[in-house]
Amino acid sequence: MKPTSLQSFKLTIKPLNPPKSIAEIRSIILNTPNIKGKETGLSVNHEIKSKSIIDTKNKNIKLKSKLNTLQKKNSNITKHFFNDIYEKFNAMYMAPTVVELNKVNSFFNNCGVQFEWSAPKYSDIPLKPTPRLKPLSLHLPEVAFLGRCNSGKSTLLNNLVTRASVKRDLNPLARASKIAGYTKTINSFNIENKLKIIDTPGYGVKGTKEQGIATMEYLQKRKNLKRTYILIPIDSGFTIYDSQIINFLGENGIPFEIIFTKMDKLFKLYGQNLDSDHNTQVIAKLNDMIVNSEVDKLPTLPQLLFVNSVINKKIDKRYGIDKIRYSILQACGII
Ligand SMILES: Nc1nc2c(ncn2[C@@H]2O[C@H](COP(=O)(O)OP(=O)(O)OP(=O)(O)O)[C@@H](O)[C@H]2O)c(=O)[nH]1
Ligand SMILES: [Mg+2]
């Protein structure tokens, strides 16, 4: 049987009466029932030098603080990794300050969000108030998410308006699905009556011609559109469809940034503890992707942003969303 991380802790356990499982015993020691070695990113070889279970309060405190230190150390590595790659690929942009990031996080964490309209064709977009579309909302600035089917557009929208502290389910604002081509219409969401975020149907193999025409017309005609974001899933990289949309945006003078999504998939390859070697490998991989896509040859290099919208065993937080939040508010002239 494959040992679990808990089993590999070398605890000298004095059985209690009645006998308890290791998980129960550990939760007694730590008084934190849900912490598992794996989830906290603890090394499986780590040895806790505790001689007996029933010990003084002091010993428990020491154990707790040791675990906290290890947890912090690992999550810092992940945070540093995201900061490193952001800085490396956005050297020409001023990075937002901590104060600015706190401000944008506070805005999105507390914002009211309202679905406004859904349009299969450009001509279906309401230009006059409706019960959902308030007069004040008609002229709000907006940004749009573009990308291949399944690139994570709808999930990113949900991530944007979910508090960072939420570990499990994202705010289910836009419908996301494993099924490629799930979003079939252009959808508008009003954020705190200050801006709109537009989710679009994906392009590529599962996209339809009608959806493509609707999105292109929207991009060309929409006066309030301030910026677009092209989502590229990190595991599949750029495709011919992405190059086509980049050309289209360039030809039409529509500003765009690039968001690499599903960054957690890198951790499947490299494990959670991205050390400096892995970090270098990931940066080299990203560099290759960017050079091959030729986005670095564009007259203005777009910002390159990185995000994981999903938490799993390898990655315990959603990273990168604060920089995206900042970019959106900046594009809309709100910050
Ligand atoms: N591992 C991982 N999966 C993600 C991430 N973001 C989205 N997904 C998954 O990718 C699938 C597609 O996500 P959607 O948000 O529906 O993608 P979309 O771009 O809106 O797709 P269409 O509506 O078909 O154009 C879903 O199963 C999501 O859970 C991420 O950051 N990491
Ligand atoms: Mg979608």
TrEMBL record:
Pfam families named in the record: MMR_HSR1 (PF01926)
Record-annotated EngB-type G domain positions: 139-334
InterPro entries the record matches: EngB_GTPase, G_ENGB_dom, GTP-bd, P-loop_NTPase
Keyword presence, GTP-binding: yes
Gene3D superfamilies, A to Z: P-loop containing nucleotide triphosphate hydrolases
SUPFAM superfamilies (UniProt xref): P-loop containing nucleoside triphosphate hydrolases
Keywords for the protein's UniProt record, in alphabetical order: GTP-binding, Magnesium, Metal-binding, Nucleotide-binding
GO cellular component terms, A-Z: mitochondrion
Source organism superkingdom: Eukaryota
Signal peptide: none
One example GO MF annotation: metal ion binding
Transcription regulation among keywords: no
PANTHER family, sorted: GTP-BINDING PROTEIN 8 (PTHR46498:SF1)
UniProt-recorded name of the protein: EngB-type G domain-containing protein
Organism in which the protein naturally occurs: Saccharomycodes ludwigii
